[in-house]
Recover the amino acids of this structure.
């Protein structure tokens, strides 16, 4: 039997899927870097005589306000109008729910007050504030 030579002509690799994967990875890393940059940097105030919340209600909505007055919900920054719309929609769907405000100790009172005004305007009256009982060493 005669030996046939294999031809390497016409043998190509399609690089399109590889390029698609690389672009997807680049987009993923850009998005995760942006999410990490937007995380609220909160340093809570000391409150030695305040009550300790042990059994937090799972329906509690945690609102964070950094020292610049920026509002964060689930780590995502929102403006006051967006915050109000989110809270109204949640109140319409679920009724009364508790709110925990985590304000930086350098946050101005007017920024915390605006969150309280939105909540009470909607009809939410269970508002608590997070603070540190004692510093960990």
């Amino acid at each position: 039997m005669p030996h046939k030579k294999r031809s390497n002509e016409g043998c190509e690799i399609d690089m399109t899927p590889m390029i698609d994967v690389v672009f997807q990875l680049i987009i993923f890393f850009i998005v995760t870097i942006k999410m990490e940059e937007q995380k609220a940097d909160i340093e809570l105030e000391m409150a030695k005589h305040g009550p300790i919340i042990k059994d937090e209600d799972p329906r509690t909505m945690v609102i964070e306000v950094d020292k610049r007055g920026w509002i964060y919900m689930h780590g995502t920054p929102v403006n006051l109008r967006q915050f109000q719309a989110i809270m109204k929609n949640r109140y319409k769907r679920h009724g009364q729910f508790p709110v925990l405000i985590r304000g930086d100790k350098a946050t101005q009172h007017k920024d915390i007050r605006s969150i309280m005004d939105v909540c009470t305007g909607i009809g939410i009256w269970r508002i608590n504030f997070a603070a540190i009982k004692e510093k960990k060493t």
Observations:
- The mean pLDDT is 83.
- The beta strands are 61-65, 71-73, 76-78, 99-103, 127-129.
- Residues 16-37 form the longest helix (22 residues).
